[in-house]
Amino acid sequence: MKTKDEAYALTKQFVERSEVKTNERLNFFQSDGGGEYDSKRFRDYLALKGIHHEKTTAYTPQQNGVAERMNRTLVEMARAMLHDAGLPNSYCGDAILHATYILNRVPTQALKGDITPHEVYLGAKPSVANLRIFGCKVFVYIPDEKRKKLDSKSLECTFLGYVENKSAYCHRLVVFWNHEMSSLMREMALLVVSLSNLTLLSSSQITHGHHSQNLSLL
After folding, report:
1. What is the enclosing helix (H) or strand (E) of 66?
2. How many structural domains are present in the chain?
3. Among 47, 67, 181, 196, which has the highest number of CB atoms less than 10 A from its own CB?
4. Tens digit of pLDDT for each residue in 175-208?
5. pTM of the predicted structure, to 2 decimals
6. Does some domain include residue 129?
């Protein structure tokens, strides 16, 4: 969520999708009482779904202690991963998503039976065979049509996470550009990345960062 005005649409999307995945209905929705969760359309949606909205008292985050503690855990993990990868703080969002992906796939004391949140939510044990180190090196294959005969066949990039809706690893890549490759790669669509059986799907959008450029795998 980039701005708070997205809270309604994203919450609605999450609730609807979760009910389909779990075959369960949401009963309680707890928030910190922020205005983004108290708009008329938000209240109307919760009422329509029969969801009870519980709000914490102002300036008492301890009433929402589980969520506050998890937020801190995710931020601490993201800080460590960014430092280890040597990436700027502008990639904090990617690091937090990566941390969330990991925590959902490891056992927690909050759940009995040594199971993971992923198992409780989806009813299936997750595979960890696809886990990669945040910020590790990957190589993007350059199609024959986008390079000359003696040009390099790959471009060194940085692994940032996982694709949610495809059988792929990375939804974005950080590319550290040199002058020769810049104009070429702005025009091309990335097709395959291979690193120890790591396969990434095609890219259809290239965005430009401050010290590096992002390739969005859609």
Report:
1. helix 65-85
2. 3
3. 181
4. 444 444 444 444 443 333 333 334 333 333 333 3
5. 0.71
6. no
